[in-house]
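Researcher: Sequence recovery benchmark, item below. Answer with residues only.
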């Protein structure tokens, strides 16, 4: 509560408290002209290179970019050879998700799916976890090319919300895409959405755009706004 923008009595519901804003300056931003910023508070589940169109989930388990994004066939190949990071937000973490770099929203895809837990034990035990759970894939046009920020739902997550369209309502079994001819523009570190309980964010970058900082390893704690990668 020392970091919360409002006192406890100001929140009309538990969800309002859970998605609380922080006081100004609580998360200083690294130099976005040199670095990619962490999109959230949490812990790194996995980080590395996208090889042959696949993302490492846990030791011995991976899944495809095409499955994760569930969209246009042209999207997945652009990330092959690029970089990914998976950040797990536990229930105790700050639950707003921010922009790792500046960019303009190009497209969103709501993908219905399962609601497995997304903690480390489940990631090690459930095949293709992040490509099976309900999720919202957001594609941004940025100075680094296309950047994907995928908000993955999980067990007892009450919802995903974006700043441009509010709560994301389930749409049955069909993937729902929305394209933006002149989408909203976001600055590095600006809020883009929030989770109504702990969950996961997966970031994807095109090849030869960034280099992860060496201290960013599986299990590393991160805070929104800190430097996680160097721009190339």
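Model:
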């Amino acid at each position: 509560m020392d970091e919360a923008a409002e006192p406890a009595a100001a929140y009309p519901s538990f969800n309002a408290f859970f998605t609380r804003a922080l006081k100004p300056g609580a998360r200083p931003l690294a130099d976005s002209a040199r670095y990619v910023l962490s999109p959230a508070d949490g812990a790194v589940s996995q980080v590395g290179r996208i090889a042959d169109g696949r993302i490492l989930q846990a030791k011995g388990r991976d899944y495809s970019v095409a499955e994760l994004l569930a969209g246009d066939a042209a999207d997945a190949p652009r990330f092959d050879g690029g970089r990914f990071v998976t950040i797990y937000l536990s229930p105790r973490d700050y639950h707003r998700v921010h922009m790792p770099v500046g960019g303009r929203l190009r497209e969103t895809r709501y993908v219905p799916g399962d609601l497995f837990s997304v903690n480390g034990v489940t990631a090690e035990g459930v095949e293709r976890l992040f490509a099976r759970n309900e999720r919202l894939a957001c594609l941004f046009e940025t100075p680094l090319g296309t950047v994907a920020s995928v908000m993955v739902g999980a067990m007892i997550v009450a919802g995903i919300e974006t700043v441009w369209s509010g709560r994301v309502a389930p749409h049955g079994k069909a993937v729902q895409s929305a394209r933006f001819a002149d989408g909203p523009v976001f600055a590095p570190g600006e809020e883009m959405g929030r989770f109504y309980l702990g969950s996961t964010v997966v970031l994807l970058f095109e090849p030869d755009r960034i280099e992860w900082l060496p201290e960013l390893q599986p299990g590393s704690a991160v805070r929104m706004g800190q430097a996680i990668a160097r721009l190339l």
